[in-house]
Amino acid sequence: MTPPVIDFLLTRKSAPIDALSEPAPSDAQIETMIRIASRVPDHGRQAPWRFILYRDDVRMEIGEKLAALAEKLEGPLPENRIAKERARFSRAPLVIGVVSVDRPHSVIPEWERFLSGGAAAMNLLLAANALGFGANWVSNWFSENAEARRMLGLRETERVIGFVHIGSFSGDIPERPRPDVAALYADYSGPADD
Ligand SMILES: Cc1cc2nc3c(=O)[nH]c(=O)nc-3n(C[C@H](O)[C@H](O)[C@H](O)COP(=O)(O)O)c2cc1C
Q: What is the sign of the dihedral through the CA atoms of 86, 91, 95 and 101?
C-alpha cells in the first residue's frame, strides 16, 4: 500500500487565492506551521529566515498603502487597478511573508541562504495543506520594490522569499500541466557540453 504521505505529496497543488476564505488557521495551527517551515535544511544553522503575519485589519491597511505606492510609481491608475492593489493582502484571511534574513558569512554563500528560504516557504505550503488549508505562494511587484518592502516590514538587507496566502478551501483545483518527469533525470554522462 502506498503510504498516505506519498499520495499527499503526489497530488499537492496550490489553491487559487480568490478561493481562500475564513476561517483562518488558529494561533496554535500557525505555530505548528511555522515550526514545520523552520525545520528545513540550513547550511551552517544560521536560521536565515523569518516570518511576518499579515492578518485582520492589517491586510486592508497594507492594501491601501500598496495602492498609494502603485499610483506614486505609475501615476493615476484606473479604478479596477486600484481595487486590485487594495485587495492584494485581503483576499485570503492570512498571509505569511517568508523573509530571507541577511547573515553575512565567510564561507556559506548568500545563494544557500536563499535556497534554505525556499525550502522554508515550501514546508509552509505543505504544513498548511496538511492541516487542511489551501495555500498559494506569490511574490508580485512589491517584492522587488525597496519602498514597498520597507512598508511591508522588511529591513533593507532582507529579501522576500514569498507571501504565502493561506485560508480555508473547499472544492476542486484543476490540474495544471506538470513537467515530464522522465525528461528530468538521467545518469551522469560526463562533463556538460552546453
Ligand atoms: C518564488 C515564487 C514566486 C511566485 N510568484 C507568483 C506571483 O507573483 N504571481 C503568481 O500568479 N504566481 C506566482 N508564483 C506561482 C504560484 O505559486 C503558482 O500558483 C504555483 O506555482 C502553482 O503550482 P502548484 O500547484 O504546484 O503549487 C510564484 C511561485 C514561486 C515559487
A: negative
The mean pLDDT of 47-68, rounded to a whole number, is: 98
In sequence order, what are the beta bridge partners of 49?
100
Over the Cα atoms of the chain, what is R_g? 19
The pLDDT of residue 106 is: 83
d(CA 70, CA 72): 5
Does domain 16-55+92-170 fall under CATH 3.40.109.10? My reply is yes
Measured CA to CA, the distance from residue 156 to residue 173 in angstroms comes to 37
Contact 141 CB / ligand 1 (< 6 Å): no
3-state secondary structure of 117: helix
pTM comes to: 0.97
Q: C-alpha angle with apex 37: 31 to 38, nearest 5 degrees?
A: 90
**Cell numbers placing 114:** 536563499
**How many Å apart are CA 187 and CA 46, to the nearest integer?**
33
pLDDT tens sequence across 105-161: 889 999 999 999 999 999 999 999 999 999 999 999 999 999 999 999 999 999 999
Alpha-helix residue ranges (DSSP H) falling in the chain: 4-11, 27-37, 58-74, 79-86, 110-130, 146-151
What residues does each domain of the chain span?
16-55+92-170
Of residues 39, 30, 35, 91, the one with CA closest to residue 60: 91
Can you give the length of the chain in residues?
Answer: 194
Question: Could you tell which of 88, 137, 159 is best to mutate to test the pocket of ligand 1, judged by most ligand atoms within 8 Å of the CB?
Answer: 137
